[in-house]
């Protein structure tokens, strides 16, 4: 038994080292100005100082965070309302809602962006705005992940019993759903929102095709930096990873705090 435990521990350590190796090498590369031999040379933090003093990069961070918060908020509200209607009033429609929410799995970013441009670029309304199209596209591509997270959370609790108990105490169905059911699946919403954040953070195709260079996010900034300075590009990648880890840590903290309550 001990041999199996040691073998499993060794295997997990090997997998972790294999997965972290590219990140470690990128960090080392970003801290040295020259790496043409086995050992890197000329340690320097100049790349980080230049990036953190660049106002355009700071604006890219703000734009990327806005591109995460707005579509995730919209999608969560839509999915929760759809789940409320199908769970409380029309349970037979749940399978159709699931099919609709899973469709974006099969849509590639290039196809989605071209389709949106073809349909709305000449529209004389707010739908023709490129930012609106971008946030709408993000809301579509993250829909399967948000739906599956909320669905898993609702499957873990007895929604029907909790709703009936709240009604027996005089609560309306909508009140029971949003004040009793939703808080009980809050951790599932947080996890699915975190997954959606990772997808939006890594997007380049949609934002490049729909907005061009008018809405420069962190991935476009990284791509443009790679053309001029590989060391600076490595530093940008490390900062993106740190921001992602920070968002993950805050999200997990809120999830654990909610669980404690």
Describe the protein.
Keywords: Cell inner membrane, Cell membrane, Membrane, Transmembrane, Transmembrane helix, Transport. It is a multi-pass membrane protein. This is ABC transporter permease subunit. The protein has a single domain (about 55-260), classed as MetI-like (MetI-like fold). Helix content is about 80%, strand content about 0%. The chain has 13 helices and 2 strands; from the N terminus they run αββαααααααααααα. The protein has helices at about 1-30, 45-50, 55-90, 95-100, 110-120, 130-140, 145-155, 160-170, 175-185, 185-200, 205-210, 220-230, 230-260; strands at about 30-35, 40-45. The chain has a two-stranded antiparallel ribbon. About 25% of the residues are buried.
* Total strand segments: 2
CATH architecture term: Orthogonal Bundle
Average predicted confidence as pLDDT: 83
The main pleated sheet reads as: 2 strands, antiparallel
Global structural class: mainly alpha
Distance between the terminal alpha carbons, to the nearest Å? 38 Å
Gyration radius, to the nearest Å?
A: 23 Å
Number of helices: 13
Number of domains: 1
CATH superfamily: MetI-like
**What overall geometry do the principal axes of the alpha carbons give?**
globular
Order of helices and strands: HEEHHHHHHHHHHHH
């Amino acid at each position: 038994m001990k041999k199996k435990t040691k073998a499993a521990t060794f295997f997990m350590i090997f997998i972790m080292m294999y997965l972290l190796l590219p990140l470690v090498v990128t960090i080392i590369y970003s801290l040295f100005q020259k790496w043409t031999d086995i050992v890197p040379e000329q340690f320097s933090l100049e790349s980080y100082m230049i990036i953190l003093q660049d106002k355009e990069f700071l604006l890219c961070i703000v734009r990327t965070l806005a591109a995460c918060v707005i579509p995730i908020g919209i999608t969560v509200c839509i999915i929760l309302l759809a789940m409320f209607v199908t769970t409380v009033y029309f349970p037979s429609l749940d399978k159709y809602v699931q099919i609709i929410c899973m469709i974006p799995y099969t849509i590639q970013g290039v196809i989605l962006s071209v389709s949106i441009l073809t349909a709305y670029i000449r529209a004389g309304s707010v739908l023709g705005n490129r930012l609106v199209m971008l946030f709408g596209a993000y809301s579509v591509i993250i829909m399967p992940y948000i739906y599956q997270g909320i669905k898993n959370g609702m499957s873990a609790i007895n929604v029907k019993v909790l709703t009936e108990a709240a009604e027996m105490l005089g609560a309306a169905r909508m009140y029971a759903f949003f004040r009793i059911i939703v808080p009980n699946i809050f951790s599932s919403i947080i996890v699915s929102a975190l997954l959606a954040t990772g997808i939006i953070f890594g997007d380049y195709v949609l934002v490049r095709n729909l907005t061009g260079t008018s809405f420069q996010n962190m991935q476009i900034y990284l791509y443009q930096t790679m053309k001029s300075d590989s060391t600076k590009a490595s530093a940008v990648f490390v900062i993106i990873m740190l921001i992602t880890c920070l968002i993950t840590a805050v999200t997990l903290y809120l999830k654990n705090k909610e669980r404690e309550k």
